[in-house]
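Subject: sequence -> structure tokens, single chain

Hey, anyone have a minute? Need the predicted structure for the following. Not urgent.
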Amino acid sequence: MSKNDNDNPTDDPTVTLDEHRGMRARQDTDARRQQSAVRADQDAIRERQASLENHMFGGPATSWLQAAEKASYLLRLFAATGEAQDPRYKQLIEDSLADFQRLSASTKEPAR
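Reply:
Had a minute. Here:
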């Protein structure tokens, strides 16, 4: 009687398919895995951004802090564009975000 592979799985190590592929096939497989992970990360980021924007578009700000959060978000969106790469705009964006941070640290959010 011959020994069946299923009789004692602990005697036979698991076969790793990558070991039976050529170097190019391994690289292609790794690239597909990385692309899949990147797509999943990008989808998660888009989902979080949509959720944040739904919150921000939900209505008018009820405090200066909320208004500053909205303005900061818009400045960061603008900072990612080509037009915002002008050194003067970059400095103005950085200064404005720093102002929002500094001023909001001294302002308390009203109780809801």
